[in-house]
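For the sake of transparency, this paper describes our internal protein records without simplification. The remainder of this section carries one protein's record, kept here as part of the documentation:
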Amino acid sequence: MIAENLQKILSQLPPQVTLVAVSKFHPSDAIREAWAAGQRIFAESRPQELFAKQEELKDCAGLEWHFIGHLQTNKLKMVLPYVSLVQSVDSQHLLDAIEKWAAAAGQKVSVLLEMHVALEESKQGFYEEEILELLLRATGDGAYSHIRFCGLMGMATNTDDAEQVRADFTRVRSYMDYLQDLFPELTEFKILSLGMSADFPIAVECGSTMVRIGSAIFGERG
């Protein structure tokens, strides 16, 4: 069933859109089944779960991990050595901690800045002016030299109103365009991660280059 679900979703995605399979709360056997069907990028939201699964699945060649949850600074060592992208950088405090860890490790960490657009105040993320200030620091005075800024991530308002979702996604897309024009030196600032199982078709219409899909692949969380 997982293989069939993957094929169904991939048939709806343009070739330039990357599918990230959100495997949080699903067992390693389910991830292994998706990997056997050709899926290579998986996302987790809890450090302990990511750490355990990457150990269990080390034999799966080409398997790549992303982190998409709220990341506490005291859990960086359980995440950063194992992921190719942190999609959910949602505060300067976290960004500073990642920079410090990466400098000590002699590495560069790839991140997306999570932009707050949803109507729910409980959602995490930066507002536009905060993102602008961070990127001005990064490009102007050389701050965050161990961080690779790869784009933006956003979550739409949790609603059945498709037009509200479209407005949220369009706002992130428009700001992404603005930042790319403003900071041409950020040559890797290309990823726009928008859309989940319920709203990814709208996200793709709005210009998303990466979708994060869990339940439509693996079924409801166990």
User: Anything to note?
Assistant: The CA atoms of residues 139 and 185 lie 8 Å apart. The beta strands are 18-22, 41-44, 64-67, 85-89, 109-115, 147-154, 191-193, 210-213. The radius of gyration is 17 Å. The chain has a mean pLDDT of 96.
